[in-house]
Specification:
The chain has 354 residues and is α/β, with parallel strands linked by helices. The chain has one domain (6-30, 47-348): SGNH hydrolase (Rossmann fold, 3-Layer(aba) Sandwich). Helix content is 29%, strand content 19%. The chain is built from nine helices and 14 strands. The strands form four sheets. Strands 3, 7, 8, 9, 11, 12, 13 and 14 form an eight-stranded mixed beta sheet that branches. β5 and β6 (62-63) form a beta hairpin. The two termini are 22 Å apart.
């Protein structure tokens, strides 16, 4: 039976930001698990530009992270520059027009933590610069900050991040869409998931296994939808997303807790639905309604609801624009808070198996 929606307020330090973790708990996630010192928790992060990371963390001499921390009531912004050793991230991302399936190992347009063999992957302490380029950040930073007390430098949580700005399920002029299955249920040979995301995930899982670790994929964190925010695309979105999530769970069943694919959580994030965006306020709201419906459709689907049960959070909702963003991308404080929202969903729903 589905659990009721849980509206949570992320403490006074978050300035009253309400985020909703929706979807039911998978009972297997709520049971204590036997300890195995070699088991490590893994989350995959994917989507388009607001997941890829198009947010500046400095503006000239202004430290936007420090300013955001002051507003949030935190006093340790330097950790975002030094790195969060309790959560390690391996990165491969670029705009879909900059990707090249014939050159996966070395592409000047790709920002990757492994500079010599980009698709191979390399885990580093999570910090600023793991976005579109070394001057950008995404929600991985806030998520790592929110989870840091639930891991250690000796046994960190691992993020595998492959995201691509501008990517969608239906983009004209590019073959690098997230996969849209045909009527026979077949996946196209070249697409964002099977050509870039899956090989990168596989390589990083192998890195962990080569270190003698036993990676368990706890969830797929997703933020995408702006490129599909048109009426005719929204009507198809839930099925397309569902097909891809089902494929992901099937592909990584052996890495799920208990080798049960349904134990891999899917955590979506709502897109901004205010005015002034390229995709429009109403279509963004329609897209968020579809996303909410998908989160409600299965026990281990969740969503970060930045509008608090469809009620706008006055002056505190996540916003694009300055300082640090633009008309399509979250500002520095909002990008960090979005990451905190993912962390809150993970913790509230016991997705770490604690």
């Amino acid at each position: 039976m589905k659990s009721l929606k849980k509206l949570f307020v992320m403490s006074a330090a978050f300035l009253g930001l309400a985020l909703t973790a929706c979807g039911g708990n998978n009972n297997n996630n709520s049971e204590p698990e036997p300890e195995d010192e070699n088991v490590v928790n893994v989350f995959v992060l994917s989507g388009q530009s607001n997941m890829e990371g198009n947010t500046s963390f400095k503006n000239g001499n202004t430290d936007l992270i420090a300013n955001a921390f002051t507003k949030l009531g935190y006093d340790d912004p330097q950790v975002c520059y030094d790195g969060i050793p309790e959560v390690k991230t391996s990165l491969y991302c670029a705009g879909y027009g900059q990707l090249n399936h014939n050159n996966l190992t070395k592409n000047s347009s790709v920002n990757a933590t492994n500079t010599e063999n980009q698709i191979q992957g390399k885990f580093v302490d999570t910090k600023v610069g793991l976005g579109l380029n070394a001057n950008r950040m995404g929600p991985e930073l806030g998520c790592a900050y929110g989870l840091r007390d639930h891991a250690s430098a000796e046994k960190p949580i691992y993020f595998i991040k492959m995201a691509s700005g501008g990517s969608g399920f239906e983009q004209s002029g590019t073959q690098y869409n997230w996969p849209v299955f045909n009527e026979s249920g077949e996946m196209p040979e070249i697409n964002m998931y099977s050509t870039f995301c899956k090989p990168f995930i596989d390589n990083n899982l192998q890195i962990l296994k080569d270190e003698g670790l036993k990676p368990v994929i706890r969830g797929w964190l997703w933020h995408q939808g702006e490129s599909d925010s048109a009426t005719e695309k929204i009507q198809k979105y839930a099925k397309r997303l569902g097909d891809m999530v089902a494929q992901f769970r099937s592909d990584y069943e052996e890495y799920a807790y208990g080798q049960d694919k349904d134990n891999i959580a899917f955590v979506d994030g709502m897109i901004y639905q205010g005015s002034g965006t390229q995709w429009g306020a109403q279509t963004s709201k329609d897209m968020n309604n579809v996303k909410q419906g998908f989160a409600d459709s299965a026990d281990n689907n969740y969503i970060v609801d930045i509008y608090g049960n469809d009620e706008p959070i006055a002056a505190n909702e996540l916003k694009p624009g300055n300082p640090g963003g633009d008309s399509m991308h979250y500002n520095c404080e909002s990008s960090f808070r979005l990451g905190l929202g993912y962390a809150k969903v993970i913790l509230d729903n016991n997705l770490l198996g604690e």
